[in-house]
Amino acid sequence: MLIAITRPVSPTLAHCELTHLAREPIDAARATAQHAAYEHLLSALGATVVRVPAAPELPDAVFVEDTAVVLPEIGLITRPGAPRRQLETPAVAALLAKFRSLCFLTPPATLDGGDVVQLGRSLYVGRSTRTNEAGIEQLQTIVAPLDYRVVPIEFTGCLHLKSAVTRIGDDLLLLNPAWVSSTNFESVETVPIDPREPYAANALRIGGTVIHPAQFPRTRERLVDRGLDVVSIDCSELAKAEGAVTCCSLLLDAPSAAT
Ligand code: CIR
Asked: Which residues of 11-25 are buried (b: 16+ CB within 10 A; e: fewer)?
C-alpha cells in the first residue's frame, strides 16, 4: 500500500524560513484548509495518509519532505540545512521507523530532502544553501552499498533542486531550464515549464496522476498537451512559505500489515 506521511500546518507558519521570497502575511487557517485538501487528494489517489504529530512551535514542520529520504530499502533521516528545522526530525523518525530501517546523517552533514530527485537507481542531489558537500558524501556512503549512485547537481534561482525539477513520469521530468540544465539528466526526456511561471516545476506524481499547483495554468496546459493526467490544487498560501506540492508529504510503499 502507498503511505503518504504528512504533518499538520503550524499556527506559526508565518515565521517560516525564507530564502528567495520576501516575507508576507500568511493566513495559517487558509494554509490549513489548503493542506487538508491536499491530504484529501492524496487519499483520493489511493494513498493512506499517516500524520506525524503536530509541532505548533516549529513553523516549517508541514514541509516533511525535507526531513527524510525514503527508499524501498531504508529511511534516511536528514539534517536539514536550516538549524531550526533540525528539531523537526525526531518525530518524523519515530513514525518512519514503523515502515523502514532508519539511517541518520551526522554533523557536519546537512541535507534537505527537497534537494533529492530519484530516478531509478540514481539520486540527483542539488548543491544548495541547505545541502552541503558532507551531506552529499554521507548520502553516497549510505546508499552506495544499496546500489544507488549519487549525482551532485548545480542549480540556481530557487531553494531546493525539486523547485527546479521533478519527476512526472517513468522517464519524464518537469524542469525550469533557467534554474537547472536538462543536460544533467542524460537520456531522460524533459518538459520545460512556461517561462512566465518559474515556480511551476514542482509537481507530485502519484501513480499515473500529476498533482500540480493551480497557480500555474500555462505549465499545466503543457502537461495536459503531453497526455498527462493532471490534478491542479491551490497551495498559494503554502507557496508564501516557499513550499509547493512535493514538500508536504513523504511517499512510500509499505506492506499492508505495517499500518
Ligand atoms: C524552508 O525554507 O525550509 C521552508 N520555508 C520551505 C521548505 C519547502 N520544502 C521543499 O520544497 N522541499
From this structure: ebbbbbbeeeeeeee
